[in-house]
TrEMBL record:
This is Vacuolar protein sorting-associated protein 52 homolog. Residues 290-601 form the Vps52 C-terminal domain. It comes from Papio anubis (Olive baboon). Belongs to the VPS52 family. It is found in: Golgi apparatus, trans-Golgi network. It holds the Pfam family Vps52_C. Residues 101-273 form the Vps52 coiled-coil domain. It comes from the Eukaryota. Keywords: Golgi apparatus, Protein transport, Transport. One of its GO terms (molecular function) is syntaxin binding. PANTHER family: SUPPRESSOR OF ACTIN MUTATIONS 2/VACUOLAR PROTEIN SORTING 52, VACUOLAR PROTEIN SORTING-ASSOCIATED PROTEIN 52 HOMOLOG. Its main location: Golgi. One of its GO terms (cellular component) is membrane. InterPro entries: Vps52, Vps52_C, Vps52_CC.
Length: 723
């Protein structure tokens, strides 16, 4: 029916539009009549209306044409006006049929109306019932709120009573003295665990009673007497126990560290005394300080005395300086007569004392060393003495902090009360020894031992020895600098003419310097010190001046250069064994050695090949100035040089090589000098060839007698010594 209605409406619209168009065509001039316009109210379809929009009409027409029914009607060629009337007729029939259906169903509609009315009545009764329920619920919710308020008030009262009960329980528990506590304090030995447990309980109760008394609690008076009697008994037993332990330290041949370690198990005893009987705690602390102070002083005084008996018998004296002549103390640098003897200017194995393995090695046992007839340098004794001091001081400081419950300045004061006399005695002994010590290497090793021990103490978190280390360094550094300055002055004041017979071999004073300087440089590399390098720099300057003064004693320049090269080479070789290759000393002597070696090579080549060298230099100078024509007057000289070189160069090179090997003690250095001389000779002869290739000398007949440069190189390689 909906499709039919849509189709009918579309048909009517098309018919209406078609009729309108026909009327316009037929009536023509009548279309503009006012009466006809008023009778036909076309609305939006009026083409004379100002609101008519042609585009919208096209849209409506297009939409109607796309309708399926309209398409079907247009396709079959039906007359739309007849078809529209037919549709209207069908609609009327359908409408009449629908009216008859409504009339037939009127009874059912009336019945439905009655049922709806009955339902309304039922719903009205339900509404009344729900209203009654709502009023009842309102009264119930008010009662629930009342119960909630009552419950909250009861909970608050319960919490308050529980809080009061807890406070009262704590108070009662803190005031009540159980029988187990009384029995343990009065009867149990202090070494039993239950005594320590009940002592802690007693301390807690005493603290609680003091706190409650401060608050004015009257019940404290009931237990004060009992607690005081128990406290006095506990103090008496603890005092007797700790004093017995301290007195046991005094027994001869007793290892005090064992009872000291045992006391740490009962460190709470002293805490109890500190909180309940300070006078007794002070008495115990004073007794401990007095006892341990005497023990440490006696032990270290005895150990130090026995330790110094195993020192080398022959030590450096004030005359054992670097610039002192060998003749002043015969045999001092000769092979020692003792099985082991300390050296003054050489390090040897002495540097191992600051190695990590030796630094913390077990201390020396003097009677064992005496039994084995062993002797040690001072730095080894110093290391043993101070390692024992370091180890015991660290242990003592940690014990004091833990047992006597102190830290910071208080711990420092208590530590120095125990160890102060021992440290002062050690400083006085060191000061006394250094007053007659002239062994700079020993003193410098002691300085580095102290620096390393100071780092170890810092790692162990024991700052109590910091002041002592500073005092030791304040003694060692000035003495070390004084000894170095004495050696510098001895070298500066040395008169080469008083040294006796001289030769070109390395001098014993420069050897002393090389050994001494390499020793200090190798030690100083581990923990660098700028002051040490400055003093070594002063010593190096004086040694260089000394070498030049001694070299000036030789008559010929060649001997002077041989002496200088031998000494520089020796000092450089010793320094490179221990010092770094880029150290200032190594670089300085390397430059001096290179300069003197080059000068010696020129001096060495001068006798046999001096004329050749001089001519090459003169000819090159003339060529460079553009005066090569002057070479034409040198033909006779050139001929003599060519023939002289060809006849004598082999014997001259052989003599040169033998002379070098006899002059230098270091074969490697001699080989290097020979190689440098031969290389320079080849270069000079090659330059001589280039001079003779100039046009002015190119026609010289003697050029045919020139030795081929490659042949000369092959022959000279045969004279190169191999070691």
């Amino acid at each position: 029916m909906a499709a039919a209605a849509t189709m009918a409406a579309a048909a009517r619209e098309l018919v209406l539009r078609a009729g309108t168009s026909d009327m316009e065509e037929e009536e023509g001039p009548l279309a503009g009549g006012a009466g006809l316009q008023e009778s036909l109210q076309l609305g939006e379809l009026a083409i004379t209306s100002d609101e008519f929009i042609l585009d919208e009409v096209d849209v409506h027409i297009q939409a109607n044409l796309e309708d399926e029914l309209v398409k079907e009607a247009l396709k079959t060629g039906v007359d739309l006006r007849h078809y529209s009337k037919q549709v209207e007729l069908e609609l009327q029939q359908i409408e009449q049929k629908s009216i008859r259906d409504y009339i037939q169903e009127s009874e059912n509609i009336a019945s439905l109306h009655n049922q709806i009315t009955a339902c309304d009545a039922v719903l009205e009764r339900m509404e009344q019932m729900l209203g009654a329920f709502q009023s009842d619920l309102s009264s119930i919710s008010s009662e629930i709120r009342t119960l909630q308020e009552q419950s909250g008030a009861m909970n608050i009262r319960l919490r308050n009573r529980q809080a009061v009960r807890g406070k009262l329980g704590e108070l009662v528990d803190g005031l009540v003295v159980p029988s187990a506590l009384v029995t343990a304090i009065l009867e149990a030995p202090v070494t039993e665990p239950r005594f320590l447990e009940q002592l802690q309980e007693l301390d807690a109760k005493a603290a609680a009673v003091r706190e409650q008394e401060a608050r004015g609690t009257a019940a404290c008076a009931d237990v004060r007497g009992v607690l005081d009697r128990l406290r006095v008994k506990a103090v008496m037993k603890i005092r007797e126990f700790i004093l017995q332990k301290i007195y046991s330290f005094r027994k001869p041949m007793t290892n005090y560290q064992i009872p000291q370690t045992a006391l740490l198990k009962y460190r709470f005893f002293y805490q109890f005394l500190l909180g309940n009987e300070r006078a007794t705690a002070k008495e115990i602390r004073d007794e401990y300080v007095e006892t341990l102070s005497k023990i440490y002083l006696s032990y270290y005084r005895s150990y130090l005395g026995r330790l110094m008996k195993v020192q080398y018998e022959e030590v450096a004296e004030k005359d054992d300086l670097m610039g002192v002549e060998d003749t002043a103390k015969k045999g001092f640098f000769s092979k020692p007569s003792l099985r082991s003897r300390n050296t003054i200017f050489t390090l040897g194995t002495r540097g191992s004392v600051i190695s990590p393995t030796e630094l913390e090695a077990p201390i020396l046992v003097p009677h064992t060393a005496q039994r084995g007839e062993q002797r040690y340098p001072f730095e080894a004794l110093f290391r043993s003495q101070h390692y024992a001091l370091l180890d015991n001081s660290c242990r003592e400081y940690l014990f004091i902090c833990e047992f006597f419950v102190v830290s910071g300045p208080a711990a420092h004061d208590l530590f120095h009360a125990v160890m102060g006399r021992t440290l002062s005695m050690t400083l006085k002994h060191l000061e006394s020894y250094l007053a007659d010590c002239y062994d700079a290497i020993a003193v410098f090793l002691c300085i580095h031992i102290v620096l390393r021990f100071r780092n170890i103490a810092a790692k162990r978190d024991v700052p109590a020895l910091d002041r002592y280390w500073e005092q030791v360094l304040a003694l060692l550094w000035p003495r070390f600098e004084l000894i170095l300055e004495m050696n510098v002055q001895s070298v500066r004041s040395t008169d080469p003419q008083r040294l006796g017979g001289l030769d070109t071999r390395p001098h014993y004073i420069t050897r002393r310097y090389a050994e001494f300087s390499s020793a200090l440089v190798s030690i100083n590399q581990t923990i660098p010190n700028e002051r040490t390098m400055q003093l070594l720099g002063q010593l190096q300057v004086e040694v260089e001046n000394f070498v030049l003064r001694v070299a000036a004693e030789f008559s010929s320049r060649k001997e002077q250069l041989v002496f200088l090269i031998n000494n520089y080479d020796m000092m450089l070789g010793v320094l490179m064994e221990r010092a770094a290759d880029d150290s200032k000393e190594v670089e300085s002597f390397q430059q001096l050695l290179n300069a003197r070696t080059q000068e010696f090579i020129e001096e060495l080549l001068s006798p046999p090949f001096g004329g050749l060298v001089a001519f090459v230099k003169e000819a090159e100078a003339l060529i460079e100035r553009g005066q090569a024509e002057r070479l034409r007057g040198e033909e006779a000289r050139v001929t003599q040089l060519i023939r002289g070189f060809g006849s004598s160069w082999k014997s001259s090179v052989e003599s040169l090589s033998q002379d070098v090997m006899r002059s230098f003690t270091n074969f490697r250095n001699g080989t290097s000098i020979i190689q440098g001389a031969l290389t320079q000779l080849i270069q000079v002869y090659h330059r001589f060839h280039r001079v003779l290739s100039q046009p002015q000398l190119r026609a010289l007949p003697a050029r045919a007698e020139l030795i081929n440069i490659h042949h000369l190189m092959v022959e000279l390689k045969k004279h190169k010594p191999n070691f």
